[in-house]
């Protein structure tokens, strides 16, 4: 399949990416190693050229980097052209041993020192000298927002990352990042957005178009734990359009989301080859203006 492409800064990627998190982390049982690699390969075979990972996607605190290593191995063992694939990773979330009976602890650290340490580990996990796209994962309210963005700008100047992104950011934080990086310097904003969760990200989706950044919805189908699987039941208009086209409700959601702007690049997660192949097929699904208008009313 030849996928339609979109831009993330200087990078060209498929209009739908692959969120690799379910291969290592989440509410559902993670797949075995063979299935995980098969899922990465299926995404690539289906024409997806953007893979999203993060250092903290791991079964436990002491296996940080698990997902990045799977992505790296999946790319290394794939028979296709690796040069056209963009890998995005994230840093800034801390996981550690728990206290007072807790299984583990978690926190955020956006300091330049921590982000550099995290990035160096990511580079090693991915087996590369440069990360294509690197996000600050979540805001650390103990520091100035600009401080972490300044650190990412430094890493970019050093050639450690190609493009800079921020994740889970509001409009004000997007503007801070643009101020630090300069117009066009912020490549992407990755926020939660789907038909049942959009109230805190609709403005950010619009604002990203205004500042020239890609908007990358995470959890675009409703998230793990059943949300994605039941999206048709939870959003009846989606089920109706899916039935009319004889496709899955998930395909309809993704096709609708990429219609919201040329800067919108959803990254549905998957832990099975069949799931990611179905998601990729949304890039070929043509919805009518009437159907899109019906779906747009969901977020009005």
Automatic annotation (TrEMBL):
Q: Any idea where the NADP-dependent oxidoreductase domain is? A: 16-299
UniProt entry keywords in alphabetical sequence: Oxidoreductase
InterPro entries named among the record's database cross-references: AKR, Aldo-Keto_reductase, NAD(P)_OxRdtase_dom_sf, NADP_OxRdtase_dom
Q: Could you identify this protein by its name? A: Aldo/keto reductase
- Origin, by domain of life? Bacteria
Which terms does the record give in the GO molecular function aspect? oxidoreductase activity
Coiled-coil residues: none
**Matches recorded under Pfam families:** Aldo_ket_red
Give Gene Ontology CC terms.
cytoplasm
């Amino acid at each position: 399949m030849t996928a339609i492409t979109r831009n993330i800064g200087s990078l060209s990627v498929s209009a739908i990416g692959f969120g690799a998190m379910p291969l290592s982390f989440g509410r559902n049982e993670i797949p075995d190693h063979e299935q995980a690699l098969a899922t990465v390969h299926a995404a690539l075979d289906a024409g997806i050229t953007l893979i999203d990972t993060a250092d903290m996607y791991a079964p436990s605190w002491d296996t940080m980097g698990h997902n990045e290593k799977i992505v790296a191995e999946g790319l290394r063992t794939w028979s296709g052209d690796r040069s056209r694939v963009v890998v995005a990773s994230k840093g800034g979330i801390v996981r550690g041993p728990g206290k007072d009976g807790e299984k583990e602890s978690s926190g955020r650290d956006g300091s330049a020192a921590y982000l550099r340490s995290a990035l160096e580990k990511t580079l090693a996990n991915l087996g590369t000298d440069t990360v294509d796209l690197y996000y600050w994962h979540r805001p650390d309210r103990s520091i100035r927002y600009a401080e972490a963005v300044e650190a990412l700008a430094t890493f970019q100047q050093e050639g450690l990352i190609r493009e800079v992104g921020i994740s889970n950011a509001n409009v004000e934080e997007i503007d801070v990042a643009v101020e630090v990086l300069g117009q066009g310097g912020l490549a992407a904003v990755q926020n939660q957005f789907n038909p049942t969760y959009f109230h805190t990200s609709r403005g950010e989706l619009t604002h990203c178009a205004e500042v020239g950044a890609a908007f990358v919805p995470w959890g675009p189908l409703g998230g793990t734990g059943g949300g994605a699987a039941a999206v048709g039941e939870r959003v009846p208009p989606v089920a109706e359009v899916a039935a009319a086209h004889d496709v899955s409700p998930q395909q309809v959601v993704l096709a609708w989301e990429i219609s919201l702007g040329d800067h919108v690049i959803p990254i549905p997660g998957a832990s099975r080859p069949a799931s990611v192949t179905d998601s990729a097929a949304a890039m070929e699904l043509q919805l009518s203006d009437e159907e899109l208008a019906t779906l747009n009313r969901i977020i009005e």
